Structures are given as C-alpha cells and as structure tokens.
Known about the structure:
By secondary structure, the chain is α+β, with helices and mostly antiparallel strands. Helices cover 40% and strands 14% of the residues.
Amino acid sequence: xxxxxxxxxxxxxxxxxxxxxxxPPVLESLNxxxxxxxxxxxxxxxxxxxxxxxxxxxxxxxxxxxxIVVSLGxxxxxxxxxxxxxxxxxxxxxxxxxxxNKDGKYLNGILDKLCWVIWAEGRVQNDYKAIETPIGFIPxxxxxxxxxxxxxxxxxxxxxxxxxxxxxxxxxxxKIDRIESFYKKEKDIPEFFWNxxxxxxxxxxxxxxxxxxxxxxxxxxxx
Length: 223
C-alpha cells in the first residue's frame, strides 16, 4: 500500500500543541469542522529549552504556519471543504504533552504519549468509547488505566486522570480570546470557524456558571 499510486487510507490526523496550563494530553475532535478549528487553534508555548523568554504563547495554525503560502482564510476554507468531499473523514486528535501542575511539574511522563497514541488508534478502530465534552472527546479512565498497565506496567490513578483531563474553563476561554485576536487580523476567515469559536465560548461560560468553578472534573461528563 505504501507504493499505491492512488494513495493510502488515512484514518487519523494528529495536531500537537504545547501549553503548560490549558489543554489535556489528548482529545478527539467532535467532527471534521471542529477538527479543522482545533488545528487552526494550535498554540506553542516557549519552554526553558527554547530561545527567548519562557512561557510566551504563539499561534501555530496546523503547526505549519511558516509553510502556508496562501491566506489563512483560504487555507482553512480548503481544509474544511476537503473534508466535506470525503466519504469517510479522518478522525482528528489534538495532543499536549507539556501540561504542568500548580507546582510546575509535568503531568505527562516521557513515555505516557505511547498510551495517548494507542488510545487514538483504538478510537479509529472503534475499540474504545469516549466522553463527550465541550472541547472534544476524551478517554475514559478505565481505558487509560488498562493501557498504562499493559504497555507501561504503570498504575495510572484516578487522581492523575482527573488532574490531566479536567476542563479548565477559564484557561480555555482565555485561549479562545487569543485565537480571536489573532484571526481578526486576517482576511476572509470562514464563517464556520467563527461559529465554532462562539459556540464553544458560550458552552464553556455556561458550564463555568453551572458548576461555579473554573476547573471541571471529567467524571462529571460521564453518562
């Protein structure tokens, strides 16, 4: 299949962001247009290993900004329409391996990403169910516990899961504000993108008000 002139089936797309306090280690988009919005919303936060000041966030649409040769509006429109032409859209996943706790310690171990990727592969194969949240589908604790035990021989606790996959409403709303500021400088951004941001913002505000807290446990979304 690698040499098939017609190409190979594509079942999943990964977009990797980098932030210390906002997004969970892995999530799956709610649908194709949400996946495009996820890719368009990637941020990269500088770390001690990068040049310049630490903790500075820059927008990196599709982690590909330096190589985009058309306007961002056209780029997003092309992505959106490409998916709409497909009979079977690939699932879209967003990862963040740089989440830290309040003491500045990384919540992801170096090898933990193996379990995030295996979970995503399992989602493509319909092996795992998922929890629907306003920001995307996240893993069930029971599935991750099994994966960590099987592949890393590690006891993955419920406390770790809650800390990693809680919805940080305040931080995500701040991120949406940064995304809006960035894209308002661009021309012809597709309407679906603004609609997606507005819808997510409204849902997060409602969620924040309902629970009267900024950080919401993933267990509250289980049905």
